[in-house]
Design a protein that fits this description.
Pathway: Amino-acid biosynthesis; L-lysine biosynthesis via DAP pathway; L-lysine from DL-2,6-diaminopimelate: step 1/1. The protein folds into two domains: 172 residues, Lyase, Ornithine Decarboxylase, Chain A, domain 1 (Beta Barrel), CATH 2.40.37; 247 residues, TIM Barrel (Alpha-Beta Barrel). Helices cover 29% and strands 24% of the residues. Strands 4, 14, 15, 16, 17, 18, 19, 20 and 21 form a nine-stranded mixed sheet that branches. Strands 5-6-7-8-9-11-12-13 form an eight-stranded parallel β-barrel, surrounded by five helices. Strand 17 and strand 18 form a beta hairpin. The radius of gyration is 23 Å and the shape is globular.
């Protein structure tokens, strides 16, 4: 997994990065293109930093994922993990392609409904759902609530009774399987906060069947994010198959298995997770059990569809010989490098600059934190004051994790669709940052 800022001696070249990303091309005159559209043109008109999304990439990846799931031979519903990128345009596009939504908050519930996703196509996950969020889900009639603890089970039963509703639920099980991913995004180990211990799941499921207001239908699991191998999935699903068979042997009705998400992408040189391999793991371990199946992809769909455009503010020479290229994007825009030491490809928008010789450089943002670093010692073409760059694979966990730290307004967002680009979020005005702040009269 390419979650390391420094990959000395292993950084792929501009040509390598472009070859692995069919939505990007370098034109000798227009520079870097996304789906045939000049990114320099967008940067010049909208300004930087600026997010750019490829609608075509979202569509083609959703279509490939759907085709892979059809090979299983059982009913498989796809619920897009809204947390990866919650823009209404993204949700609307994926709804048109047949996706439902996997949500983890009341806000995401409202967004999904606003985007036209049917409540019956929404799955509500999350370890800490509030009473208000659960009541909103019950009122909307969401298709499934994934319950993560005995305590939540009792709370949901009481709320359902109070509101005269019946909640269709699964129990999210923690299979204690190592997803072999970054420690901060693994969710299926016994030490993690997520889910119900495997050893307790059957008894709790039997208990759930006795509680009023609940309609238990099966189990769910999710072992982590940025998973690029099928092996952890097979291990988790094999354990879940054992649980399902045991529950059925005990006379418990189990008809649904939500297989979670987490399929990873290639940021650097790692092999991208393959939906066909995921489908193979599901079919091999669960395909014989006559279940309604579900998956919750996020990063795999949205990650490669987005980039972050930025401009070099200045090039600061250093006694070490490795310069600091300070760009106008920062950790408040793209948090992954500072949060996870994540690696993202960086390509100049200029064809001339992209074709130039490479040398080690540090690329950093202007925020007043040493952690505001995009890469260290990366072999890059020479970047000078005014150079524009694209930071790759930022469509997932990019704009959605942005903040306004250092009173930096949220960046604009653009979507390219069929050769035309549209602003889908205006750049935030600085004054908007304090619009809802109240200064006590004694301080005025």
């Amino acid at each position: 997994m390419a979650d390391s800022l420094s990959h000395a001696g292993t950084s792929p070249s501009v040509a390598d990065l472009l070859a692995a990303r069919p939505n990007l091309k370098m034109d000798g005159v227009s520079g870097l293109l996304m789906d045939g559209v000049s990114l320099s043109t967008i940067a010049g008109k909208v300004g930087t930093p600026c997010w750019v999304l490829s609608a075509n990439t979202l569509r083609t990846r959703m279509q490939r994922l759907s085709a892979a799931m059809q090979q299983i031979g059982s009913e498989v519903s796809i619920h897009y993990a809204v947390k990866a990128n919650d823009h209404l345009a993204v949700l609307s596009l994926l709804r048109q392609e047949g996706a439902g939504a996997d949500i983890v908050s009341g806000g995401e519930l409202t967004r999904a409904l606003k985007a036209g996703i049917k409540a019956s196509d929404i799955v509500f996950s999350g370890v800490g759902k509030t009473d208000a969020e659960l009541e909103a889900a019950l009122g909307a009639g969401v298709g499934q609530i994934n319950v993560e603890s005995k305590e939540e089970l009792e709370i949901l039963s009481a709320l359902a009774r109070k509101n005269g509703k019946t909640a269709t639920i699964t129990l999210r099980v923690n299979p204690d399987v190592d997803a072999r991913t970054h420690a901060k995004i693994t969710t299926g180990l016994a030490a993690n906060k997520f889910g119900i211990a495997f050893e307790e799941a059957q008894a709790l499921y039997a208990h759930a069947l006795t509680l009023p207001g609940l309609a238990p239908v099966g189990f769910s699991t999710h072992i982590g994010s940025q998973i690029t191998s099928a092996a952890p999935y097979r291990a988790a699903y094999a354990r879940m198959a054992t649980l399902i068979q045991s529950a059925r042997s005990a006379g418990l009705d189990v008809s649904v298995m939500d297989c979670g998400g987490g399929l990873g992408i290639s940021y650097c040189t790692e092999t991208e997770g393959q939906p066909e391999a995921l489908a193979g793991a599901i079919k091999a371990e669960l395909g014989h059990l006559n279940l309604k199946l579900a998956i919750e992809p996020g990063r795999w769909l949205a990650g490669p569809a987005g980039i972050l455009l930025s401009t070099v503010i200045l090039r600061k020479e250093h006694a070490s010989g490795v310069p600091f290229c300070i760009i106008d994007a920062a950790m408040n825009d793209l948090a992954r490098p500072s949060m996870y030491d994540a690696w993202h490809g960086i390509i100049p928008l200029s064809a001339h600059e992209a074709a130039g010789p490479v040398a080690p450089a540090h690329v950093v943002g202007p925020v007043c934190e040493s952690g505001d670093t995009f890469t260290r010692d990366r072999d890059l073409p020479s970047l000078q004051r005014g150079s524009r760059v694209a930071i790759l694979d930022a469509g997932a966990y990019g704009a959605v994790m942005s903040s306004t730290y250092n009173t930096r307004p949220l960046a604009a967002e653009v979507m390219i669709d069929n050769g035309t680009w549209h602003i889908i979020r205006e750049r935030q005005e600085t004054e908007e940052l304090w619009r809802h702040e109240i200064v006590p009269s004694a301080l005025t």
